[in-house]
Amino acid sequence: MILEDFLVKAEEGYYCRYGDFYIDALLPVACNLISHAHGDHATNGHQQMFATTATFAFMRNKFSKMVEEHMQHVAFNEPFKIGDVELMFIAAGHMLGSAQILMRYRDVRYLYTGDYKLQADPTCEPLECVQADVLITESTFANPSIQHPDYVSEILKLRDKPSNIMLGCYTLGKAQRLTALINEFLPEREVLVHHKMYPVHRLYDQLGPTRLKYSLYNRKAMKEGKPNKIYLVPPLTFNSYFKATNVLKAFASGWERLQRQNDIALYISDHVDWDDLLSFIADVKPSEVWTIHGDGRQLQAHFAGQLTVRDILKN
């Protein structure tokens, strides 16, 4: 029997009372499972933390005072238990080390996706699909009007531009994926990375499946030689360069609002779009779908009378 309150949204994070643990807690708790290292999912200060080795490596890069004794490294597809709940981390394909969390309690399987994508990404583990009775899915782009274009066609928009390009993107995950795409499909372009991205690229080189080609940004490199540079910068830096000259501006994101006033629209997302979400639900074959991180109303309407779809309950 599905327990409607097996995982609920609490002030601290998503709470499982049956194992007395949290998932992706934003406030300090006694026991926290971390799906991936992005700041809206990964925080420090918990008494006990479970995550993949890559996730902990990225967190150490951000948090200087992490305590090793508080960290429990979890490998993909290796079962473990907290209380009476059986758990397993499954690759999510969102970024290096990102995990779905499969929970089994009284013979019912609950799958928390975290953030995930179906698109290929040479810099991280590909999404793995497992069947579950309850799918607890992010719904960032759960809207039929949102269809992510082919990422290869998008990155090729940067080809044959007679100028250097300033490319805005998130420091962790997206910047490394873009670097790999540029390396593969635009080998004539030289990648320069912002100083905040550089240590993350180095960690990807150490832990990831793909060796990236890039250099640390310096002004001289941008001004001299061929105009074949693509300079990757984080959002705040990108926004502060709104008067930049002699470069074309683009921002890699699935959000339309982030494409406005740029020279090149670049729709590359690390989340599932509507079609991918429907495809994933079909593969998981859940009896119920609980939505988090977004608006699940369109999904509820789509499956009305066919499948139970609702927002996760609040504590």
UniProtKB/TrEMBL annotation:
Keywords: Exonuclease, Hydrolase, Nuclease. GO terms for molecular function: exonuclease activity. SUPFAM superfamilies: Metallo-hydrolase/oxidoreductase. The keyword Hydrolase applies. Gene3D superfamilies: Ribonuclease Z/Hydroxyacylglutathione hydrolase-like. Residues 268-302 form the Zn-dependent metallo-hydrolase RNA specificity domain. InterPro entries: MBL, RibonucZ/Hydroxyglut_hydro, RMMBL. This is Exonuclease. The lineage of its organism: Bacteria, Pseudomonadati, Bacteroidota, Sphingobacteriia, Sphingobacteriales.
